[in-house]
Amino acid sequence: MQRKLFCEINRTCYRISLAKEILRRNLKDLFSGQKIARERSGETLPVIVKSHSSILLRKLHGVDIRLQENKVTNIMLACSKINGLIIHPGEVFSFWKMIGNPTKRAGYKEGLVISKNNLSKGYGGGLCQLANMIHWLILNSPLTVIELHHHSDALFPDDRRRVPFGTGTSVAFNSVDYRFKNTTDQDVQLLVWCEDGDLCGELRTTREFPNRYRLSEENHHFRKENGKFYRISQVYRTTIDRQTGKEIQIELILNNHSEVIYDYSLIPKDQIKDSPDDA
After folding, report:
1. Residue 31 and residue 45: Cα distance in Å, rounded?
2. pLDDT in tens, 260-275
3. Cβ of 126: how many Cβ atoms within 10 Å?
4. CA angle centred on 268, ends 223 and 198, rounded to 5°
5. Of 11, 53, 104, 106, which has the most beta carbons under 10 Å away?
């Protein structure tokens, strides 16, 4: 029998472990020397680097729709904390430093949360979608991601997916953060809001950056290995010179090999390929 971790013994032990992780993160931040972006402006910077939208209410197999509806409330609250944020050169964006602890007292509702590949509910659940949106904007810019925690598994089947699989990020207050640094010489601004059933986002700046970016997913398929299905693909980012249109660099940013944890019957049959061992 596998020995339980301290945090798994009971709820009190979990809370102690959580408090320890929060304290550890706060101490790390205190001595890191990072300057966290805090300034918000009601005036928008003139140049759009990247804009994107994602559907707020998705059909998730086996998930209570009320958790999805509560997620919308949670995201709207979090957007109100971030919208208009200016990140000056050298400053760092921190998801949790802007939002704070998403508690019931702060107005957050119970939404879907994922922990160790298990689905449950918790206050502030669903904020990963907002973190995913911000990460997608940053991937389409020259800014530098300095903290990222990928979802390791394929949690749900696709429902009107608009971006390559695996380009999201996990967040959990406050030890699992999402952070990027403005490594350019000009201000950038994040705009995030909800409109007509979509989560909308823009990354703006003062003048055009010299390059633009294109992300693509290749070799996408499902494969059975030792009785389990995995979702396989590679995600590439292409850097393109804005003036000439020439491709400057193509880099592999993600090599997906993610275990499918939803019902295998929902995997499209035409996307299943034989394992090399079966050839």
Report:
1. 32
2. 888 888 888 989 887 6
3. 26
4. 115
5. 53
Residues forming beta bridges with residue 34, ordered by sequence position: none
What gap in Å lies between CA 80 and CA 185, rounded to an integer?
27
Question: How many other CB atoms sit within 10 Å of the CB of residue 208?
Answer: 14
| pLDDT in the model for residue 34 | 86
pTM above the 0.70 mark? yes
Tell me the C-alpha distance between 261 and 258, whole Å: 9
Contact between 231 and 222 (Cβ < 8 Å): yes
Q: Which strand (E) or helix (H) includes residue 98? A: helix 95-99
178 phi and psi angles, rounded to 5 deg: -120, 125
Residue 101: closest CA among 136, 66, 74: 74
pLDDT in the model for residue 60 = 67
Checking 29-37 for CB contacts under 8 A at 24+ apart, the result is 29/97, 34/92, 34/181, 35/90, 35/91, 35/92, 36/91, 36/92, 36/93, 36/94, 36/97, 37/85, 37/86, 37/87, 37/88, 37/91, 37/92, 37/93, 37/94, 37/182
Instruction: Extract the tokens encoding 253.
Output: 């940013």
